[in-house]
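User: Some background: our group keeps a shared notebook of sequences we're curious about, and every so often someone picks one and asks for a predicted structure to add to the entry. Today it's my turn. The entry only has the sequence so far, pasted here. Could you supply the structure so I can complete it?
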Amino acid sequence: MLLAFRAPSELVFTLLPASKESFKTWQWSLFSFSLLSVCSQGRSKSSGLCFSDGKSHIDYILVYRKSSSQSEKREVFERNIRAEGLHMEKEASLTNSDVIFLKLHAPWDVLCRYAELMNIRMPFRRKIFYMHRRHKMEKRINKFRGLLPRKPMKFDNDALPDLEENESFTAPFSRSRIHHFIIHNKDTFFSNATRSRIVHHILQRVRYEEGKNKMGLNRLLSNNSYEAAFPLHEGSYHSKNSIRTHGAENHRHLLYECWAWWGVWYKYQPLDLIRRYFGEKIGLYFAWLGWYTGMLFPAALVGLLVFLYGVFTLEQCQVSKEICQATDVIMCPICDEYCPYLRLSDSCIYAKVTHLFDNGATVFFAVFMAVWGKSSFLLYFTLVCLYLVFQDEIRPQFEAKYSKKERMNPISGKPEPYQAFTDKYSRLIVSTSGIFFMILVVIAAVFGIVIYRVITVSTFAAFGWALIRNNSQVATTGTAVCINFCVIMLLNVVSFCLPLKWYVGTLLEQPRTESEWENSFTLKMFLFQFVNLNSSTFYIAFFLGRFTGRPGAYLRLINRWKLEECHPSGCLIDLCMQMGIIMVLKQTWNNFMELGSPLIQNWWTRRKLSREHGPNAKASFPQWERDYHLQPMNAYGLFDEYLEMILQFGFTTIFVAAFPLAPLLALLNNIIEIRLDAYKFVTQWRRPLPSQAKDIGIWYGILEGIGILSVITNAFVIAVTSDFIPRLVYAYKYGPCAGQGRAGEGCMMGYVNASLSVFRVSDFEKRSQYRDYREPPDSAEPYTYTLQFWHVLAARLAFIIVFEHMVFAIKTLIAYLIPDLPKDLRDRMRREKYLIQEMMYEAELERLQKEKNEKKKKKDRVHHKEWP
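Assistant: Of course. Here's the predicted structure to add to the notebook entry:
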């Protein structure tokens, strides 16, 4: 699969109409409606999409209250808006007389002027495609597939025609070469998303007071001069008539029917339509989310097979058999005061559960997931990123602060604001210190959870309820995970409630461009969120039970409490519980908050309006009034959406060797997540500002870093946390099959007893045992490490090195065999670039020749008049 913008139609996922009879209707649905045409046709203003004259299209809405104390700033700001050439119209709210809507419209000359300044790429010439042999073969294959019955997920290239911009070359808009651009209608040449982006660009650079920093809409929103600012939705997403018989009323209605409606959860996403309506940035997010979800299918299938392998081989597992039959093996207490001596057979159930996740297929799955995360997943991004090219804009705040210091841009050759090296990095150091402080808070919280686990295990061991008392360690782990989840969510809320924007690269750092601002904010906040979510998991995976000492010489916390030990069946069951509970609770909470919060708030707003103005009052409101009562997009844009999925990706890959069902849980969540986000964007939120983006930004580097970290952590989980290496060493070196070069369940007889050490208890009639490789008390060197311990340690280190090198070698080989950019696609892009340059050159020659001819004609006319 390949998702790409501005790609040939066979590479763009669209919704398949139900039948060929609805083909014409869907064609009309995609192209025949336009908000600009609604205004140009002079329809009434009741729709709320136009000015009162019924002709000027509303490109942006500003909302303020008459009772606000910032009227002087607003007046200056609006006066400067008129000076920029924007048209304005004010109208009072129908529900609150104190609320005023300021409607903005950008005329043609303003759009052309700023499109040139912003280097917006517009359709330049029709594309002339050349056909590769591969494309011819694909066409034949698709023709053959067309004879087969249609599948639910299958899409038809002929069902929806290409969008106009996909059929055309694009070039930065220039007024001097305007006659070379494809302009059928001035009202529809600039799309609604482009018009809104241009108006927002103007508003960000308009001054509201005299001063270097007294500019921009964002500052007026922060000081409550304006209450809200947003572009309009293109009408209602509902219709009384069926879309298959009457067509879609607008793009929003079409998006709802083919994307946000729950009935099409199994369909591909109409990415081009999403991009046209919400902009490239949001379109890239949904393209990435769709690709990630698709890539989870093989990972979830393999993980499920590994789990099923553990289920089917449970009865043949020699280790669990020996644990279940070890009724005469007495184990040391897991705590000091109330914990009794245990029989090893009491761990029978936990040993069987551990085998479901830690079995012979786990190593294969870890290698598969490491290669999956490092190779197949990351190959996608370059394909998407190269289709979008735009020039990043300098932030107006940066321009205002460093306007007096300028230097020549080596690329454009134009002077631009400049930030000194010392100023830049001194600000960076100060801003970074805030995040490191928050990370220390997280580490302190994890330490508190460790103390809770150490103290509570004794409390549960003396509990009155027998079920809790007999399973005190599992109860301790379960409650600790739930408390840890609450701490994680609390710290997440605190990190966004505190004024961390001063510390994570916004006002204090003064980044030069918007992408630098987003990258700085994203990296620092991701580090905090990642540490917050995974720190306790790292503790359980690599520290729990590793430094407790031995009976008679335990290491204690504050010289009082013995450090927590692993369960007799191993530490993997604790790690599985940690991952399973956190993953399920976090995904459930996120989905509820993402959709539940705006649904409840919008329901409450509708309830208030119906009480005051009647049950059907909102339907009669103009569009700006209806959009005003929707919820605004969160202040951090797509950061929360990306963060949730990236953290899930890390949780799925970093410790996947301990929890093979993680990809399946992630897949089920993401299938719901796509429609939740779609429904939220289309129906519950105001229309976000359409923004351009050439890629997913710094998230690409974060994903690559997570891929590298997952290889290392999975190697350590298998080598250190699981019993795979000790079992392997025993089978080849100490078991019944030692020296025979084979390992199987029959070679594991006696492994449990070989993995236990003996401790003499003076006040107990029998000797108790514990998990370790130490000499018995009656040996020459009691309680020292045995030779088997050093063999296991050497095997663990060797496995980590071999595992990492093997995975990275496989990844490098795959990257070599399957390049990031296929040759035919690279050739097409080079040819397109060549043709654009050639056409630009021809257009310039044509313009110069035309000017030359005009000058010659003018000269001839002058000469003719002068000649008697």
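Suggested note for the entry: The first strand starts at residue 60 and ends at 65. The two ends are 76 Å apart (CA to CA).
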